[in-house]
Design a protein that fits this description.
Radius of gyration: 39 Å
Strand order of the largest sheet: 16-11-10-19
Largest sheet: 4 strands, mixed
Number of strands: 45
Shape: elongated
Distance between the termini: 89 Å
CATH topology of the largest domain: Neuraminidase
CATH class of the largest domain: Mainly Beta
Structural class: alpha+beta
């Protein structure tokens, strides 16, 4: 029923219609980006307004208030806060992967500080934003009236830049939302180029080029499962972690955070950590300082003296924004910006290619039109010049300008445009040089017209232009990836996902202080060098073990009491060269009076068969390595010991070689390993060598390699290499033969190792000095020789405390069978034997105090 201007309607129908109209308005005109240029309307209006006003990357900065006012007045009457916040975000390096605005002034911070008022800040377009607007004046896009019908605005930008995935976007509409992460330009361009060349490429093929999001704040993405799902379906979830490491300073450890997850507020993060410490949820943090500056983020979390850094770091990942989830929802407008759709990766890239094809086609038609129009004018000018006398006569005989124009058209068969151009031509154009310029311009235009027409006749050539444009963008704006992506991981996995698999050196002192540092910290020196300071030790403490191993290896710690403990190498705190390290008792459950006497590093418990152990009193034992694959936190029994005996040496073996033992007073015995039958883990060993003199003890046990030498090092820094064939094979439990002639000058033997000429030896003294020298520089001498000076001891009372051998050569051969072996290691020597081939291209192996399978 309708009475005058009053209509009677059903309120449910009216509310439904009004709400749907409102919802579509918000979806299309406010909250969601267009798949073609990756921009929301407010984004597009800001860039278009700045371009129209000449506020480009090469012009001076303008007040943000002026920019915002122009956008509000002409295109976007939705409040200045919305426009200014968008403008500011475009200029924040922690929000945008590739900033579209070059800002000057306070544009906010990662701490959540707001930007300064718009009357104080200035801005201009960034250089990369020009690529979004390039060719907008060549009829490449459709324009529409603004809100009041007085201005025109583009419906979409030409967008040479693949902005939707490049910078990503977040938006909340009515009943739907979008959350697209940013990506790296180089990878994105490579993926699009690959799709151009291979239209049937699968998502997996594209993912090999575009490996995943790349956030402006860096960080670490754990696992690719969520990325693969998002690329395949448009939706996925991934875990992002901060990038952090541990530093040691004056005996205390600190966790240093250098990169944050995307959109993580640093100030809120600090407040959360302080709250957790106050509530007792995290125990072990003593202080926290923000040392961030213009060079980057540096959040320092200082730990208590007895805290375990890895444990605290895992707690921070669990309870704070140092680890967050990012839900990918690639929702964008398709079908000329009218329909919202969740898009997989391939559809987004294909939409970009199709849009660029349309833009380039329209640009080509525009350029062709302009070239044809200009050629048409030049053609008329050339006719006029060729008949200049008659043209002048015709004009002079005409009553007025219009009559002259009509006469020229009728006399010379010209178009109205050509006749007008002739009338407008200056007399100076009749000079010979000017006439030649007109002819040259006309000829060049003919070539241009032919090229443009050929491009329109062969649309596939447009794809070549798209590829060329992407290569240009890569070269001009491309940069390295900031976000690290770890394969096959998720947020519930251990910290191993954050640890690079690399060779490191682990040092352990007699007092039980342990630390980890890069294995190449100590440069090779010549024989007789004094070395560098390798570790600051406590009073009356000495370095006992130096182990070369990989961060992913498992360390087995064998103690003087015959027990064994297990620890991952990466769980050992990373520290500086002169740092003391962390007490080992904080990492494994050894007793106060228990000392680690041997350490081996194992990569795989299935690649070797046995552990061979020897005690200080000359006992030996062989046990299956598999019995040590799962060691409890409170340790396991590795060998039963007699009273006053200690476990001293452990090697890894396949059970087919020979063993050589050396004593402190210079005796050595060599016998077949088969003489020691395998026995259980908690059994006692059998006799290996007779110790004739009281006070003598075993200082070295190794597995024989006929192509190698026995390296002998004494307490006073003397050493030599003796060929292995000078040590005859005897039966087990003999007195042995002389290994070295000892004098008060040489001191007693402290360690022996089986080495080759390609190895390096690392010696550390009781005062903490360390030197690394090539083994080939140590003289090869007979058993009765006293050796040469290997390391000069610069301090009174100093002596050699630890010996490690870095093995460069991976493959060794035993005399009885051609069995490939790997030199492995422990604190007193070890040998890793493997069945089958050994890859010669694998990284440097190590010995003396570590092994790698």
């Amino acid at each position: 029923m309708e009475i005058g201007n009053v209509r009677s309607i059903n309120i449910e129908d009216e509310m439904r219609t009004a709400y749907l109209d409102y919802a579509m308005s918000v979806i299309v005109q406010r909250a969601l980006p267009d798949v073609r240029d990756g921009l929301k309307p407010v984004h597009r209006r800001i860039l278009h307004s700045m371009n129209e006003n000449g506020i480009r990357s090469t012009t001076p900065y303008k007040k943000c208030a002026r920019i915002v006012g122009d956008v509000l007045g002409k295109y976007h009457p939705h409040g200045q806060d919305a426009v200014y916040e968008t403008l500011v975000r475009f200029g924040q390096d922690f929000s945008m992967r590739y900033m579209l605005i070059d800002g000057q002034g306070n544009f906010g911070s990662v701490d959540g500080d707001p930007p300064a008022a718009m009357r104080y800040t200035e801005a201009r377009m960034a250089g990369i934003a020009d690529e979004l607007l390039q060719d907008i004046d060549k009829d490449t896009v459709e324009f529409q009236p603004n809100y009041d019908g007085l201005e025109l605005e583009p419906k979409v930008l030409p967008a040479k830049l693949p902005n939707l995935l490049l910078n990503g976007v977040q938006g909340i509409a009515v009943g739907m939302a979008t959350n697209i992460p940013p990506h790296n330009l180089n990878e994105l361009a490579d993926a699009i180029i690959y799709l151009v060349d291979n239209p049937e490429a699968s998502t997996e093929d594209l993912s090999e080029r575009l490996v995943g999001p790349d956030f402006p704040t860096g960080g670490i993405i754990l696992g690719k499962a969520g990325i693969r799902e998002a690329y395949a379906t448009g939706r996925g979830r991934m875990i992002i972690r901060a990038k952090a490491h541990v530093e040691e300073n004056k005996g205390r450890f600190s966790i240093i955070v250098t990169e944050l997850p995307y959109m993580c507020n640093k100030r809120t993060l600090q407040e959360r950590i302080a709250e957790l410490v106050k509530d007792g949820k995290i125990d072990g943090i003593s202080d926290m300082n923000d040392e961030s500056d213009r060079n980057g983020i540096r959040l320092v979390v200082d730990l208590k003296r007895d805290a375990q850094p890895q444990k605290i770091m895992n707690q921070l990942f669990k309870y704070t924004q140092l680890q967050t989830s990012f839900s990918i929802n690639m929702l964008a407008l398709v079908e000329n910006g009218l329909v919202p759709r969740v898009l997989p990766l391939r559809r987004i890239l294909q939409s970009y290619i199709e849009w660029r094809q349309e833009v380039i086609t329209r640009r080509t038609r525009y350029d062709l039109n302009k070239a044809q129009q200009r050629a048409h004018i030049l053609e008329g000018l050339l006719k006029a010049i060729a008949n200049i006398d008659k043209v002048i006569q015709t004009i002079r005989e005409s009553k007025n300008r219009d009559a002259a124009k009509t006469s020229l058209i009728e006399t010379f068969q010209l178009s109205a445009e050509q006749a007008q151009a002739i009338l407008d031509m200056q007399l100076g154009r009749l000079a010979a040089l000017e006439r030649q310029r007109i002819e040259d311009e006309f000829n060049e235009l003919q070539k241009t017209i032919a090229a443009l027409q050929d491009l329109l006749d062969h649309p596939k050539k447009i794809l070549g232009i798209i590829k060329k444009d992407l290569q240009f963008l890569k070269e001009k704006y491309g940069d390295v990836r900031r976000t690290l992506i770890i394969e096959d991981a998720d947020g519930d996995l251990s910290v191993e996902d954050l640890i690079p698999d690399e060779v490191v050196l682990v040092s352990i002192t007699n007092k039980g202080y342990v630390k980890r540092l890069p294995h190449d910290t100590y440069k090779t020196q010549r024989r007789g060098g004094k070395g560098v300071n390798g570790m600051t030790t406590r009073e009356q403490d000495v370095v006992q073990h130096t182990i070369i191993c990989n961060t992913m290896d498992s360390l087995l710690f064998f103690t003087n009491k015959g027990r064994v403990f297990q620890l991952k190498v990466h769980e050992v705190p990373d520290a500086g060269r002169t740092a003391k390290g962390l007490p080992l008792i904080n990492l494994i459950s050894i007793d106060q009076n228990e000392q680690v006497t041997s350490v081996i590093a194992i990569n795989n418990f299935e690649n070797a068969k046995y552990l061979v152990m020897a005690t200080r009193q000359g006992k030996i034992k062989r046990t299956n390595l598999s019995e040590f694959s799962s060691v409890r936190s409170n340790g396991l029994i590795a060998i039963r010991l007699e009273e006053k005996d200690e476990l001293g040496f452990v090697w890894i073996s396949n059970g087919l070689g020979e063993v050589i033992l050396t004593t402190a007073e210079g005796k050595a015995i060599r016998f077949k390993e088969e003489e020691v039958r395998p026995i259980g883990r908690d059994a006692m060993g059998v006799n290996a060598i007779k110790l004739v003199n009281e006070g003598d003890y075993v200082v070295g046990m190794d597995l024989v390699d006929l192509e190698a030498d026995l390296l002998i090092i004494t307490s006073h820094g003397f050493g030599k290499r003796t060929p292995m064939d000078e040590f005859p094979v005897h039966g087990r439990y003999g007195q042995g033969v002389i290994a070295m002639r000892l004098t008060p000058k040489t001191g007693r033997i402290v360690a022996t190792r089986v080495v080759s000429e390609s190895d390096d030896v690392m010696l550390m003294t009781t005062s903490g000095m360390l030197v690394r020298i090539p083994v080939r520089e140590i003289s090869r001498q007979g058993r009765a020789a006293q050796g040469v000076t290997v390391m000069s001891l610069g301090r009174a009372g100093d002596s050699i405390a630890s010996v490690a051998v870095v093995t460069e050569e991976r493959t060794r051969f035993r005399q009885d069978e051609n069995i490939n072996e790997l030199k492995g290691g422990n604190g007193n020597g070890a040998l890793q034997l493997l069945d089958g081939e050994v890859n010669p291209e694998e990284p440097e192996n190590h010995n003396g105090n570590g092994h790698k399978n």
